[in-house]
Amino acid sequence: MAQHNLENVDTSEYPHINKGLDGIVAFSTTKSFIDGQKGELIYSGYNIDTLAENATFEEVCFLLWHDRLPNSSELEELKSDLIAQRELPSPVLEYIKTTNKDAEPMSVLRSAVSMLADFQAVKGKGSEEENLKHAVAMTAQMPTIIAAFDRARNGLEIVAPLNEGSTAFNFLYMLNGEKPGTAAEKTMDLCLILHAEHGMNASTFTARTICATESDMFSAVTGAIGALKGPLHGGANTAVMNTLLELQKQNGKADPVAFTKEKLARKEKIMGFGHRVYKTFDPRAFHLQKMSKQLSEETGQEKLYDWSEAMLKTMKNEKNIDPNVDFFSATVYYSIGIKPDLYTCIFTMSRVSGWSAHYIEQAANNRLIRPRALYIGEKNLDWVPLEDR
Ligand code: SDX
Q1: How far is the CA of 122 from the centre of ligand 1 (A)?
Q2: Residue 340: inside a domain, yes or no?
Q3: What average pLDDT is seen over the chain?
């Protein structure tokens, strides 16, 4: 494949050319603000630290969908709507039970979310009110899909969702078959809050691009799941845990500093580090680091936390690169007993709130998204007959 080095190409006609759309502003939004120099993150007016300390995931969903906090009756209504929609249509459940047990959980989640569209009364792009209903449906059903697949692939009976409790509580209940304690519920809830929304990341951009063709919200979220799955985006949290588990296999000989330096020397990426926008510590990572430290002590997994910290210091010293949201979320999920290949699914069941909020915002102020590509190939070649090639 040709390398696309544009140094000798005349790009004067294209003033906005920018690999990776770095720094390009494509939309205005009220959903979130990131100051990458200061390490500040705001969801619809509220600092992430304020939300982490005070909010629940359900309040964050309402905030992102309506740009304001709910009053108590609005919150109760949203919670009961979410509870009412947790069950999956039986063909979707059947698919989850019968698909390949070795399938990637993100792949199953993507296919199942796509199927959910077939069971909606409203087809196509929908009104704002209908789209809000679709947002609630997907937020309610994703945890059921993830937990059901994990149990089905392990030969366990699928646990039906509860008619009560928070999204976090019900997810852990369906996954483990027993009601979680307050600490585990709080940990999961905080993780959902921290992952809900993050500006024009690759998956949100995908969702908005699909919305802008006037396609439906299920298509937008299905596409976004595909984008989030990649290891340069949401898939990094699973990759971080696999790295730490590799170190653990070295039976007391693990050297995370040498491991990190050797990878850097080979010009390999260290998963969970770096960010297009943050040039300092990701503010979400502060909360996750604190949780990771505490949970690893409580569960006797201090080594995993110590190795993470050693990698963090090495990355800072060697490359001046800080961790992103995916680095410490890995050990947090591990400490509460979740399998590494489900981590990106958990990111998804939170981020669906942000994607759907952006979908509604895009639909209300739409224009087709259609950038240009700089053609660097040849032009008007003579046709060569098949036998002469
Ligand atoms: C998420 O956009 C969002 O908001 C995403 C997200 C969200 O909430 O939606 O925050 C969630 O996706 C977090 C990112 C998860 N991905 C990873 O952890 C994978 C590892 N990190 C990267 O590959 C990288 O940092 C990206 C993909 C996150 C950012 O890529 P950029 O902006 O295109 O940066 P780059 O690859 O051009 O790197 C710039 C420099 C390079 O060095 P030089 O060639 O200039 O010397 O930084 C180096 C890179 O090699 N670098 C790394 C590195 N990240 C950047 N070097 C080693 N390890 C890394 N992780």
Answers
A1: 39
A2: no
A3: 95
